[in-house]
Specification:
Helix content: 25-40%
Mean pLDDT: 84
Shape: globular
Low-confidence stretches: 2-29
Structural class: alpha/beta
Number of helices: 13
Order of helices and strands: HHHHHEHEEHEHEHHEHEHEHE
Radius of gyration: 20 Å
Distance between the termini: 17 Å
C-alpha cells in the first residue's frame, strides 16, 4: 500500500514511550556519547531479536483495551463494513494506545518477520511475526501481543501482511488467539500495479524477500481462516498523471478473488478508483478505498467518503486528510 506510512514511521521511530523505555522526561537531552552509542546498539539488536513488552506496559494496555471493549467504539459485525472507522497506525505501543483511545472501531497493523539479519540458513528458524511496515521500524509490538490486546478491545482487526513468509507463523498465532467472527481482515498486496517496479532486479528482490503472496499462500489463508475477510490489494508507488489500474491488473485481481472465495474485499487507492472499476469488482467482493495523503489529500473528508459510498464502495473507506 502507501509509501507515505513508511516516511511517517521513519520520522517518528526514534521516539520511545516512557512506558517502554523507562526514560524520564528530558533524559534524551542529557545523554552523552555513551548513551547515544547504546541507543544505536539497541536499535541494531532489533534486526536479530524483537523483545516482548515489559509487564508494566502490557498491563497498562490490557486495562485500556478492556475499557475500549466497554465503550462506544467496539465493532459490531452486524454493521455495514463501510461504516467502519479504521486506525491506520497501530504498530508501536504509543500508536496502539492512541488508537484504543480514539474514535476507531477497527485497528490496522502491518506484519513482518523479526530479525532481518536472520534470513539465511538455520538463523531463519523461530522468527516471530512483529508489527512493522518493514524491517527498519522499531520498537514495535509483537504480533501475538497486538492480537491479544486487539481481541480484548472488541474492535475489528486488520492484519496487513507485508511479508508473505510470515503467513505460516501468523496463521499459527490466529489459531492460538482466535478472533471472533466478523472482526478479522487479512490484507495483502497481490498484484504489481501503477508505479510498482517490474525490472529484473526488483523481481529478484521480491523472490528473495517473499513480499508478495502466490495463489497457494492465499488458498492456505482461506483454508485456515474460512470466515476472515481476505483483502486483496494492488501495489503502487508514486503518482503519474497517466496512472490507472490496467485491465491485466484488474483481471488478475478478479482471478485471485475467485480462488480465495468470499468474504473478499478489494483494497484500492482512492485516486485510481472510478465508478466503472467499482461496478466491475462489486459482484466478486466489497470494494474498499484507502488514500495516500502524499498523493491525494481531500479537503473535505466527509464529502469524499460520501462520493465513494455513492459509487457503491461497501468495504472499509479509509481516508486521511
Amino acid at each position: 500500500m502507501s509509501t507515505e506510512r513508511a516516511g511517517q514511521r521513519r520520522a517518528s521511530a526514534p521516539v520511545l514511550s516512557p512506558l517502554t523505555s523507562g526514560a524520564a522526561p528530558g533524559r534524551e537531552e542529557s545523554k552523552g556519547w555513551r548513551g547515544r552509542l547504546l541507543d544505536v546498539w539497541s536499535g541494531l539488536g532489533h534486526f536479530t531479536f524483537h523483545p516482548p513488552l515489559r509487564t508494566q506496559a502490557r498491563e497498562a494496555l490490557q486495562r485500556q483495551a478492556d475499557l475500549a471493549a466497554r465503550g462506544a467504539h467496539a465493532w459490531d459485525p452486524a454493521r455495514p463494513l463501510a461504516e467502519a472507522r479504521s486506525a491506520h497506525h497501530t504498530n508501536t505501543l504509543d500508536d496502539f494506545a492512541k488508537a484504543l483511545a480514539g474514535p476507531f472501531d477497527w485497528l490496522e497493523g502491518d506484519v513482518w518477520l523479526e530479525g532481518a539479519a536472520r534470513r539465511l540458513g538455520p538463523l531463519q528458524r523461530w522468527r516471530e511475526p512483529i508489527m512493522a511496515h518493514d524491517p527498519l521500524e522499531y520498537p514495535t509490538l509483537r504480533t501475538a501481543e497486538w492480537l491479544e490486546l486487539g481481541i480484548r478491545s472488541g474492535k475489528g482487526l486488520k492484519l496487513d501482511l507485508k511479508h508473505a513468509a510470515a503467513v505460516p507463523e501468523v496463521l499459527a498465532l490466529l489459531e492460538r488467539h482466535p478472533v471472533p467472527a466478523g472482526r478479522l481482515m487479512i490484507n495483502m498486496d497481490v498484484v504489481a500495479g501503477p508505479g510498482a517496479p517490474r525490472g529484473p532486479m526488483h523481481r529478484l528482490i521480491e523472490a528473495v524477500s517473499d513480499r508478495m503472496p502466490d495463489r497457494r499462500t492465499l488458498e492456505r489463508i482461506r483454508m485456515a481462516q474460512p470466515h476472515a475477510i481476505i483483502s486483496l490489494g494492488i501495489a503502487t508507488r508514486g503518482r503519474r498523471p497517466e496512472d490507472r489500474y490496467s485491465e491485466v491488473q484488474v483481471s488478475r485481481l478478479l482471478e485471485l478473488a475467485r480462488t480465495v472465495g468470499a468474504p473478499v474485499q478489494f483494497a484500492l487507492r482512492s485516486d485510481l478508483v472510478t465508478p466503472e472499476l467499482v461496478a466491475k469488482l462489486r459482484p466478486f467482493g466489497k470494494v474498499g478505498v484507502w488514500n495516500d495523503p502524499a498523493i491525494s489529500r481531500p479537503a473535505d473528508l466527509a464529502a469524499e467518503r460520501a462520493r465513494f459510498l455513492a459509487m457503491g464502495c461497501e468495504g472499509i473507506v479509509d481516508l486521511r486528510g
